[in-house]
Structure formats: C-alpha cells, structure tokens
Amino acid sequence: MFKKIAQKLKSNFPAPQVHAHCDGPCGVYDPSSARITAEAVLSMTKKILDLDPKAGDHKTVNTLSRYIAIKEEQAQKTKEDLLILWTDYFKPVHLEKYPDLHDTFWKAAKLCSACKVEVSLEHATELMATVETIHNMFWATKERNVPWIKAS
User: Is 32-141 a CATH 1.10.10.10 domain?
Assistant: First the structure.
C-alpha cells in the first residue's frame, strides 16, 4: 500500500532535474576548518605528552583516553577537509602555479594518518605547517591575502 501511495505522489509531483559541477556552490571552500582541526591535533598531542604515564590512576587513564579520542577524531576531520579541497576545489590550472600541489596534499593526508596512529609532536607540528602551506596556496588562487591566524 505504501508503494502505491509513493508512486502516486511521484507521478503527481515529479522532482525537478538538477545539475551541479561540484559538491557545493562555488565559493564555499575554505581551508580554515582544516586549520582548526589540525590545531586541535597539535594541542591534544601536547596534552598527551604532558601527562604523567606513571600516575596510572583512573583519572589519568580517563584523561589520556579522551585526549587520544579527540586527537584521532580531529586528525580524521582534517584529512577529510583537505581531501575535499584537493579533489573538489583545486583544478589542473592550479598545477601550473603550484606544481607541488599534489605532493603537498598527499603529504598532508599521510601526516593526518600518522597523527592518528602515533603521538608525535614532530608530525603534529609538521601537519600544521603543511596546512598553512595549503592555506596560502588556496588563498593565492583567489588572489586574496588572508592571514594565517591560529587560535593558540
């Protein structure tokens, strides 16, 4: 019975056909979300390294597990945001100005993965630097000078 009702609705109220050339309207891309999440990865990495592993009490173990969960979640979000920029925003014309664009994004994605599976201040710091490079590339393609501002 539900199928008949649905078919009747579809035939009486057909959905219009739509077209799009990207996931969202042009102009909605911005690397700031990757900066925020990468900064959270760096912050959580520092907090993990500051914990006393010898304490071993429930409070420390709970705090450690929360920091790890946040670090891994934010690293994944950073990776997703960067991959969207790489695959949806940047076009072949951008490669002319930035021949290292693919290597930069590949490196950033690999750093996100490394930050998820380890606690490395070096890699977390390197991720922030790579996201800054991407930030600068992105805004240069729009011929805008948007400053790199961190929350901390």
Answer: no
